[in-house]
Amino acid sequence: MKHIRTIVLFGATALSSAAFAQETLYVAGYSGDFQTMFEKEISPSFAAKHGVKIVFVAGNSSETIAKLQAQKGNQEINVALVDDGPMHQAVQFGLCDSVAEAPVYGDIYDIAKLSAFGGKAVGVGLVATGITYNKNLFEKNKWPAPTSWNDLTDEKFSKRVTSNPISGTFGLNTLVMFARMNGGGEKNIEPGFDAIRDKLAPNVLSWSASNAQLAQMFQNGDIDLGVWGSNRAVALKKTGFPVEFVYPKEGAPAIVASACVVAGNKQPALSQAFLQYLASPEVQAKLATQGFGPTNRNAKLEASLAQEVPYGDEKLSKLVNLDWDTINQNRAEWTKQWTRTVE
C-alpha cells in the first residue's frame, strides 16, 4: 500500500509540474531602443494575460529573415517583425503562415492591411522616407524649406547631400522615386539611374549605409540635407539638433514595419494572438514612441507625438507604397548596376 501511495503522489507531482510549465514565445524584431521599449512596455501585459514568457530576439530585418531561412523546418522564432521589403521576401519564401481572421484587422489602414501581404502578414508601424534638412542653416541662408525630391539636385547643395546607397532602404526608395518622377518606375528603373547619376550623385558627399554616420554628418556640419526616415529625423531632433523632416510633394515612400506568424512554429495559437495584440490601438500608441506611425486608425496619440510620426489623414495621404515583388526580383541586378555606375 505504501508503495502504491508513492507512485500516486509522484504522478500527481508530475501532472502538477506539467500544468504549471510556462510556455515561451520568441519574438524577433529591431534592436536598440526598440528592444528596450518592447520588453518594458509591450511584452509584460501579453505575458501576464496569457501566462507566457516572451523572449525578444534582436536583429535588423535582413538578419531576422536569415534566421528564419536557416531554421526552416525547425523554427525557434514564433513571430517576426521586419520592414515590408524583407517581409515580402519572407512571404515569397514560405516563411509566414496565413493570418487568422480577427476584428482588429478591419481597423488597419489600406497601406498596411493583410491583403498587401497576401494575407500572410500585417503592418504594425509606418515610417516615411523623405528629406531631412538643417533648419537653422536654411534660415541663415534664407533658403526656402525643401518641398520636392528635385530639391536634392539643386547645384547650391554640391557635396552637401547624403543618402543610403541602394543597399539601404532609404537609398532604394530614392532610386524608385527618381525613376517614377522621370517616366519610369519599378518596372522601368533606368530613368531613375539616369537621374541619380546625372543630377543627384554630383551633390552627394557620401553614400552612407550607417544611420549613425549620417546623423554625425549633420552634427558636424558636413551636410545640409539628406534622404532619411521620419523616425531617424525625430531621433536626431530630440538630441537638440535643429533638423526638420519633409514629406516631398511627389510622395514619401512608406516603410511598413510588418509582423507575421512564422510558418511551422511551435506556438501557432499564441503567435496569432500576439499578432492581434500588436495590431491593437493600445500597442500601436506605444510603438509610436519609437517613431512608428499607427496602422490602426483607432490609435490615439498625444499632440506632440502625433507631430513626430506619420499620423492622420493628411500625412498618410502623402505616403506611397512600392512594388516590392518587382523590387525583390531585380534588386541584385540593380545593386550591381549601382556599384558600377553610381558609386
UniProtKB/TrEMBL annotation:
<dbReference type="Pfam" id="PF13416">
    <property type="entry name" value="SBP_bac_8"/>
</dbReference>
<protein>
    <submittedName>
        <fullName>Branched-chain amino acid ABC transporter substrate-binding protein</fullName>
    </submittedName>
</protein>
<keyword id="KW-0574">Periplasm</keyword>
<dbReference type="InterPro" id="IPR006059">
    <property type="entry name" value="SBP"/>
</dbReference>
<keyword id="KW-0732">Signal</keyword>
<feature type="signal peptide">
    <location>
        <begin position="1"/>
        <end position="21"/>
    </location>
</feature>
